[in-house]
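Quick illustration for those who missed Monday's session on complexes.
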Amino acid sequence: MHLIKDNSIVVTKNQYTAEEFIQKKIDLLKDEVEPFYAVDLEDVCNKHIRWITLMPRVKPHYAVKCNDDINVIKLLAYLGAGFDCASKGEIKKVMDLGASADRIIYANPCKQSSYIRYAQEVGVETMTFDNEQELMKIKQIYPNAKLVLRIVTDDSNAVCRFSMKFGADMNTARKLLDKAQEIDMRIIGVSFHCGSGQMTSKAFVDAIQNARMIMNYGNKLGFDMHLLDIGGGFPGNTGTEDYFAEISAAVNQALEEHFPDDGHIKIIAEPGRYYVASAYALATNVIALREMVDSETGNLKYMYYINDGVYGSFNCVLYDHYVPEPHVLTKGDLNEKYTTSIWGPTCDGLDCINKSIQIPKLNIGDWILWKNMGAYTISAAVQFNGLPYGKPIYFMPKHFWDSVKAAFQSIPRKHQVDTCIMRLNSCDCSNEVEDDMLPWIPEDFIEE
Ligand code: PLP
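Prediction with pyridoxal-5'-phosphate bound:
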């Protein structure tokens, strides 16, 4: 394995865990200690396969805001996913990377006028709204838009709540449909978001039921209500697989009850963290340390300063309520543990990643690995104090990538979802290539 260029992917002969891949990379780095991510693209593929297996009726539209990494967007475009974009910038990025306008939902209920105009120019027709002023604004700018009415949910069990900012309640939703009919705007469906990091499947079930009521009302008014968008909020960290299966089962059952497949109704979702959280492991380096004696216990305690912090990748500590767990990669004694705090590299006292944890003693130059760092990290990071944050390095086993390509390339796009899983399961995985770096082959990602 060599040091690699931006955005290229290490196609490996063997299967590696993120930890093994990081260790391999560190061994090559010697004096270079910049923080980096090991991005496991097989994990992203497997998430997609699991999604379409467990919720075959629900077409995922990846929420780009969660992590707008171009290789993730390209891969998901290749695998047939749609995209939830929140702005002109995201729409442009996704389209520049090869996704067509009909695979995009502009899912921001309150949009800048010029961005609505841009959506019209590039042919993105489907967009959400949740208030009358937005409806009137879209009417003026883009009267042919296909509108999706976002309703409010009970997101009290979510880690990040949105209901205080977005979503029409049931009464308001009915009034908005009346208004849309009066001004001749086209409403095609209902969307909701149960909050990011939603902890109960009941939130989805209740919201699906409410959406049904609003869709019924819309149908009565003469709208062709055929799109249900069940939003994001699905868990993505390693270890949440059973919970995702539970949500999927509850969603499928609620859909069966309230939205039986009549060949016309289309169900989509806007998963963000589900796709990327577990695929990203961050490697940071200990750049400084401070040893102290605890005045109460007399024990040694430590402060470590690492080269990525809350202004960079760890902004998730502030914005996403994340509690990162350090995995130390040190050659020192792993058995004895000390009270420790871990700090980012900026001059700000707020830049603290862990206030008090018990970990082995580290030395300057040791590496710390942080798992489940793909969601709401890079996308909101800045280079405060002129300090870089983790740069992604992608990896995927050659045999896996070959099998994905074989499965997806030979199948006409509209049949892919059903057949690719079978093909992947029966693939012939040969290990013939040397470890090497291969760039994406751009033709692979051009839509048919
Ligand atoms: N859709 C919308 C409109 C959102 O605002 C968000 C997150 O902010 C998402 C989807 C993605 O949510 P999650 O990452 O929890 O799946």
